[in-house]
Amino acid sequence: MGLDASRLIKAASGFPLPPGIHFSYGTAGFRADGSILDCVVFRAGIVAALRSLNTGSTIGLMITASHNPIQDNGVKIADPNGDMLSQEWEPFAESLANESNLENVVQVVEDFMQKNGVFKVSASSGKVLLARDTRPSGGRLLDAAKQGVEAIAGVSAEVIGVLTTPQLHWMVRATNRGVGASEHDYYSQISSGFKCIVDMIPMRKNLASPSELVIVDGANGVGAMKLSGLQAIIPNVQLNVRNCGSEGGILNELVGADYVQKERKFPQNFGHASDLTKIQKSEDAEGITLRLLDGDKILTLLAIFIQKHLQELRSEVHWLSSVNFGVVQTAYANGASTKFLKENLGVEVVLTPTGVKHLHHKAAQYDIGIYFEANGHGTVLFKEEFFAVLTKTAPSEFRTEAAYKAARLLLAISDVVNQAIGDAFSVLFLVESALQYMNWTIQDWDAIYKDLPSRQLKVQDRAVLRTTNSETKVTHPQGLQSAIDMEVAKVTCGRAFVRPSGTEDVVRVYAEAATQDEADCLARGVAIHVHNLAQGVGLPP
Ligand code: 16G
Question: Could you tell me which Pfam families the record lists for this protein (predicted)?
Fold first, then answer.
């Protein structure tokens, strides 16, 4: 089978490229104002269709701009295992998205197909699952993507409708593994894994106590809407979802994890005195202050929980003694978390550049790998072979009851986590089950280590900035790294780095130090150097 050029040109002519804009395949796909994305999304549909033919598997395509403002939108592609599109395909996706001449669009596709043998290893038919979040531009863009998929002969597009991004990734993985892949199956798997963990709690507390109430910020988006699917079937947790979008709230405006993490403020409709017994806060002289238990704290909690059971297995079951366990972070990880993981838990910690695709890839190399970005993106991965051993080992082969229980617990954890991609729903219930199992309060969890004070700022101009060593060092413009080193040397326990954002047209500055004043001062000092050396066009106030 070859490419039907006239079919492709005819379909593509309905989606002209807006002039004068270059679309970049950023940290996680294309993102821009939703009004100018039709062409890019149509062409991403072509990429997904070809990827399906190339892998002989079902592929996913998601219309979303995650934490960006409501007027933005974007498109991401999920590979057969449910992870992000192979990075080898990103340059192709980018050149296709930016080709202004229609005849050349066919040429770009044909060249890529030939070079990569797209049809050589492939099936004669393919399938792409399409979904979107609740953004107003989503319906129109989903239709453009569908037309892109269908422009490639032999590939069908199945529109699932409104889903969270991790749900789509999960469904793609489940479809390709030949197991139940419906939205209902997704909820059932999380719920049964969670139930299995809480059923194994050594000394069950009164699970109906008010401390099991979890208040969730729905960020006025798809998460709020979908959480109700779990609410009904999750035992032992009472969910109170706020910012559901129904009272006029706007997606990601003064709400959402990104807002809370970057601004260090409560989302709207949180932080009232009435919440005091329900969520984690302390009171200072000014009133209520926020305590943020971010991706680093989640990672640390899960590492403690998993390592405890893994150690049980390693010591009792000799063929599991060599099972390896590692954690993956980015440069944004608070220095105190990395220190705790290495020195107190003795686990291997690896750094990668920002973006789930990098962390996921690294974590997949361990028998059990946990990855989290400080912003909360993350999950736990179980290597297929290790998972198979756990599943197939008969109860009698475990020397002790404790080892058998540890194996069952790890299997239950693997059900609750979304192994395709980081997923706030599964992480929420994994954290809750870990706390319940270990009989920890949120305060116990928070006390594992004390964060070093940090500050993040944004500056221009990202186009000239180049980094290396998992984004911890600048290679261009010259002189910037030594200027940063000089600023770092001025403060106690200082650390700072800068990187071009992959989702916004800014340079991100990160600084941490022994005190908040020093962290603020360091961030400001570094931002000024970026401004001066990287053709800066504006400093934050
Ligand atoms: C995207 C990435 C996230 C990363 C963030 C960085 C995925 C699913 N999401 O949201 O991992 O932390 O971008 O944004 O890959 P930035 O490049 O603007 O700092």
Answer: AMG1_III, PGM_PMM_I, PGM_PMM_IV
Residue 261 pLDDT: 85
Q: pTM value?
A: 0.91
Per the structure block, which two tokens stand in for 168? 């789509």
As a whole number of angstroms, the distance between CA 21 and CA 12 comes to 18
Residue 128, strand partner residues? 59, 157
Phi, psi of 115 (to 5 degrees): -65, -35
Cα–Cα distance measured from residue 351 to residue 329, given in angstroms and rounded to the nearest whole number: 5
The confidence score (pLDDT) of residue 26 equals 80
| Residue 502, annotated as binding a ligand | yes
Going from the Cα of 336 to the center of ligand 1, the distance in angstroms, rounded, reads 22
Q: Is 501 annotated as a binding residue?
A: yes
Q: Describe the crossing of helices 401-416 and 295-316 by its angle, rounded to 10 degrees.
A: 150
- Give 3-state DSSP helix, strand, coil % of the chain, rounded to 5: 45, 20, 35
Find out whether 419 and 382 touch, Cβ atoms under 8 Å. yes
pLDDT at 120: 54
Q: What are phi and psi of 210, to 5 degrees?
A: -60, -20
Q: Whose CA is nearest to atom 19 of ligand 1?
A: 501
- What distance in angstroms lies between residue 422's CA and the mean position of ligand 1's atoms? 12
Distance 347 CA to ligand 1 centre (A): 25
DSSP structure string for 352-384: --SSHHHHHHHHTTSSEEEEE-TTS-EEEEE-H
Q: Is 508 annotated as a binding residue?
A: yes
Q: Tell me, rounded to whole angstroms, the distance of Cα 468 from its chain centroid.
A: 22
What is the Cα–Cα distance from 424 to 226, expressed in whole angstroms?
11
User: Contact 427/377 with Cβ under 8 angstroms?
Assistant: no
Residue 28 beta carbon below 6 angstroms from any ligand 1 atom: yes
Residue 104: the pLDDT is: 93
Cα–Cα distance measured from residue 168 to residue 177, given in angstroms and rounded to the nearest whole number: 14
Consecutive 10-residue averages of pLDDT for the chain (541 residues)? 85 95 88 97 97 95 95 97 94 96 92 79 81 98 98 95 97 97 96 94 59 87 91 87 91 94 88 54 54 95 96 82 93 97 96 94 96 96 92 85 92 96 96 94 95 92 90 94 97 96 89 97 96 69 48
**Positions marked catalytic:** 66
Ligand 1 atom at minimal distance to the Cα of residue 375:
12
Q: Residues near 338 by Cβ (< 8 Å), separated by ≥ 6?
A: 329, 349
Phi, psi of 510 (to 5 degrees): -125, 135
> What atom in ligand 1 is closest to the CA of residue 502?
17
What Rg value do the Cα atoms of the chain yield, rounded? Answer: 24
Q: What are the structure tokens assigned to 226, written together?
A: 């979908």
Closest ligand 1 atom to the C-alpha of 357?
15
Cα–Cα distances in Å, from 160 out to 30, 151, 226, 530? 21, 19, 14, 44
